[in-house]
Input
Amino acid sequence: MVFGIIISSTLVAMPGIGSKTAIALLLPIAFVLNKFEAVALIVSIWAVSNTANSITSILFSVPGGGGSQATIMDGYPMAKKGEAARALAAAFTSSAIGGVIGAIVLLAAIPVLRPLVLLLGPPEFFMLVMIGVAMVGALSGKAPVKGIIVGAFGLAVSMIGVHMLTGIHRFTFDQLYLVDGIKLVPMTIGLFAIPEMLYMASKGTGISDVPLGDLTSGRRQGIKDAFTHWWLIVRCSFIGVWVGIIPGLGSSVADWFAYGHAKQTCKGARETFGTGDVRGVIGVDAATNAKEGASLIPTLAFGIPGSSTLALIFGGLIIVGITPGKDMLTKDLDVTFSMIWLLIIGSILTTILCLAFTKQLAMATKLRPTLMIPMILAMAVIGSFAASGRFEDVLVMIAFGTLGYFMRAAGWPRPPLLLGLVLGPIAERYMWTSVQLYGASFLFRPGVLIIFSLLMLSVMYPMWQDRYFKRMERNVEV
Amino acid sequence: MNVRFQPRTVLTVFFIVVFGYIFYESQEMPQQARLYPYTIAAIALGLLSIQLVREVFFAPVANSRETGADVDFTDEEASSEGQKRTLELFLWVYAFAVALWLIGFFVAIPVMVFLYLLRHKEGWIITIAMPTVAGVSTWALFNNLLHLPFPPGLVFEALGFD
Output
């Protein structure tokens, strides 16, 4: 767990790498571990993702990930005033508290979710899987139609290989390698690590030439700030929890919601926010980390990962023999509780390590792309090959890397592709079971109709969301 | 009404071809295997038609690279210098894949790291130290400890090395 936290903190702290790439690069290591060790590694990588990325936001005004954009608003002005250590300590501490609150909500939700999950049948689960893909495609982007198409493409990629019910080969082009289907790890590494590497190469220079300065004095004040504003942390954590429960609303939504809330409710915030108010940092970091625990609720209960990062976690769990969904609330309940406790411990441990090694982590951002690129490329190749020990995995990685680059260039979101690949086999199984049990009339069951209405709402919602954010951004600018 | 064919429409056409193939190919399958790909392809083709019409007839040119769900494509990447660097790295990636196939992982990885650092005029200490670390860790960590069955490469196989 400590190994996972240290390595992934370093990777996540580098702008342009991000949590998805870090998870994809480290996931092959989980293959050689036993079930509980693998879960500890996976959860620890995940626990880090929303804490370490505040470093670049505060120090260099470069968001380390989706959830650290709003941190810049007050974190960077604080750093400019010589309060970088205070801002970082406040961000790390509030992140830990938020993470613990999110995990506790998850813990409390389990007794409620168990009977609810047992009430649902295959038709409802099929629609829930569809809603998961559609919501991540539609809600998380400015291009909902493109998002849903990419999700469908992920479902299509998952069809490659032997069909589990009939045994026939689908879309394999008579290639032996494709009989087993496209593996999650090489595809993810290709889709995220290669385009990020290309991004680094196109920039040509390092992320920042700004001197790091003093990152120790003011640390104690930052920790104290977090505890002084505990009620703000609790409120923003619950905003994060709410965002986390809805699949598709990622960290980039949670941080702006929390920032907006803090600005509206904190005394004198309208004058001080944006100029280096520590409360702006505290609220945002608490919300983004609280979101993580809560986002496990739909993943564990219904088998719907709420984000592409969770889809990767989901895929990692499947690889080590754990199937998210109903089983995690019944026969694998011990694994679920282990995950929750690991998330709590991971959040606290990450904060302690980030506080202790802030300077070292910040130095990771100073590495030149010319040094990072060959190492990432080597890691990407080895990580892809480790998926099944076949050279074709490397070719799959490169093919998806090329596709990922062109998708970015043309404005097609990549995360729904990952979700589609992970959820594809589950969706097909539920769909066929539903057809066998009820025929085409499964589509008219009350539960299915309710979920379908939600699905339609989720497609319409981004239009409203887009307008809302534009208005909010205008308010923040004012 | 203006008709705009932008380079990015190529990707939309690519997806249309993929889903068109799935739709066509699944017709030959038994019902159990056909139902799911058929349904997904039909839905996707419907949405792609809307997307294509929007891109060709209505799409605004500005900001169409923004996804909101992903790291947006930057102006630096879109610049001619950025594209040149991207193309060079693509060539590195493809050449590296060929090297892996020909001379295997143990040799190709340190060689790639060494040549890349040499190309970018890094200091000699780094240029020698980094490939050494990469080669040793590939052999010690991934081969010996994690037992990854790295293929020796076509050339070494032909020379009789396993």
Summary: Strands of chain A lie at 161-162, 169-170.
